[in-house]
Amino acid sequence: MRFDILTLFPEMFAGPLSTSILGKARESGLVTVDVWNIRDYALDKHRIVDDTPYGGGAGMVLKVDVLARAVESVRGTSNAPVVYLSPQGRMFSQSVAAELAALPHLILLSGHYEEIDERVRQHWVDWELSIGDYVLTGGELPAMVVVDAVTRLLPGVLGHEDSSKEDSFQAGLLDYPHYTRPAEFRGMKVPEVLLSGHHGKIARYRLKEALRRTLLRRPDLLQRKDLSTEERQLLQELTDEASAEGRVNTDESD
Ligand code: 9WO
To answer: Which one of 52, 133, 169, 199 has the largest count of C-beta atoms within 10 Å of its C-beta?
Structure first.
C-alpha cells in the first residue's frame, strides 16, 4: 500500500514513520510512505502558502492554487482518494481503518493551524476524517494515526498473521487483561485459569473478561455488536454476578 502525505511540516513525520512496526513495514516494502512539503508547490519568490480570509477575521487560510498544485502533482495519474484530516470529518475508527487498508493508495492532506480554502474541500478532498473531538495545531498527528492504524492491518506487517484479528476492537470488544511471570507478586496472584493450560477455559475466561470491561467502560460498543450465543451467556453470568453482589451489599448495609 502507498501513502502520500502533504504537509507544511514534513520533519514531524520522520520519527514515527521510521520506528518499530511502521519502520519495518517500510523497509520490507509492504508499505510506501512519501511526505511532501506543501510549500514546494508555492511558486512565488517568498513561497507563500496562506493568505488572509475573505470577510475578515482572525487567522489565515491555506491557498487554493498552492494546494491544488500540490494534490494534482502528487496524485499524478493515480485516482487515489484524498483524505483531509480535520475535526469536521467523519470519525475514524477500527472499521474505517479496515476499509482504508483495502485500498492501494491514499493521499493524506494535513493542514496546520489554518483552515484550507473551502474550494479545496469541494474539488480535491474525497473524504474528511477526524480522529476525535478535539482541536490540535494541525492534521499531522492525525495523519500519522491513520497511517499507523491502517498499516498494521496490512497482510505481513504484524509478525503473527492473526495478531491484528485477535486484538482489542477487531471483535468489537475491549481487550481482556494480560499477565506474565511471576505468577505471584507481593501477594497479587495471576488468575488460576491462566496457569491451567486448559485452552477452552482460558478462551472462555478471556471472552468473559473482555465482555466485563466492555460492559463497564464502553456499553455503547455492546449495543452495536451482534453477540454470539456464548457471548450472550457470559454477559448473563456477569449481570447475575452483579445483582448477587448487589444483594450482599444491601444485606451488609442493613
Ligand atoms: C484554528 C483556529 C484559529 C483561530 C480560531 C479558530 C481556529 N480553528 C482552527 C482550526 O480548527 N485549525 C485546524 C488545525 C485546521 C485544520 C488542521 N488543524 C487540525 C486538525 N486541528 N485538529 C485537527 C484534527 C484532525 C483530525 N482529528 C482531530 C483533529
So the answer is: 169
